[in-house]
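Support reply, case 0932

Customer input (verbatim):
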Amino acid sequence: MQSIKIMTDSASDLPNEVAKQLGIDVIPNPIAVDGRGYLEGVDFTPAEFYDILANAKEIPTTSQISPITYCERYYEAFQRGYTDIILVGISSNASATYLRSIDAVKLFFDNCPQAQGKINIHIIDSKTFSLGYGFPVMKAAYMARQGKSVEEITATIKDWLERLEIYFTAFSFEYIKKSGRISCASAIVGEALGIRPLIQIKNGEMKIIAKPRGNKAVMQKMAQILSENIDPKSPYLMLTGTQEGAKEDMQKMIYSMTEKEPVFVSDVGCSVCINSGPKMIGIGFMGKNQ
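Our regenerated output:
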C-alpha cells in the first residue's frame, strides 16, 4: 500500500486552512523586507503582507528554500511512515528553489541511508506560479485520500500543468516599475494613458499580450480570452488582491460569457504581489487547444 504525502511551497498561494484540512505540507518561502527576514504564511497573512509591502523602503525579495529545509521535511515524512512524497514547486524559470529540492533528495538519502527503498520522492517543476500549481496540489491531496496511486496523481498534475493558461493584470504600475519589469518611462506613460498590461503565463513563459486602456477593458479582455480558450470541462481559478470590486466584476463578466463560476479564489501571495502589487487580478484554466 502506498502512503502518499503531498508537498508544495508557500508561493502556491494555498490558504493555510485549506492546506491543513487536506494534509498538504506547505514549506514557507523566506522573504526579506528592509533587512528583516520573514517566512511567508508563517509570519504574516496575505493581507498583512500588503501592509508590509506598502510601508517597505525597498521592494521585498524572496529567497530560495534551502536544501536543509527540504531534507527536514523529507525526513519527517519518512518518520511518519509515508512511502512516497509528491512535491510540486514554483517554476524553475523564476526560482532556484526547484533545484534545491532536488539537491535535498541526495542530502536526505546520504544522511538517512535506512530510508533507501522505503520512501520515494517525486519532484515536479510546475513551470508556473501561484494557484496555477496550487490547485493541482489540492486535487492531488484529494486523490491521495481516495487511495489513488502515485502514477495516477502525478499524471493528473502534469496534465493540468501542461494545459494551463494564466492571465493577470496590475491596476497600478507602481510595483511593476519598482521590480524592474518595465522602465520608469514606460510606467509613467502607461499610468497617464490608463494602460493595463495583460500578462500571459503559458508553457513556462511570461509575456505581455495586450495593453488595454482602463480597468474594465482589461478585465473584459481576460474574460473574452477565457471564454474562447477554456476547455469546456475545465474549471477556472481566480487570484485577487486589493482592487475594490475587481473580483465581483471579473466573475460577472466571465459568467455572462460562459456561465462558469470560479472553483477556487485565493488572495495573491508574496511571489506575485512583489512584482504586480496588491492591486491585481488573475485567472487560470486548462486550454482546449493543447
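We compared this against your earlier run and they match. Two observations from our side: The longest strand covers residues 164-170. The chain has a mean pLDDT of 93. Please reopen the case if you see a mismatch on your end.
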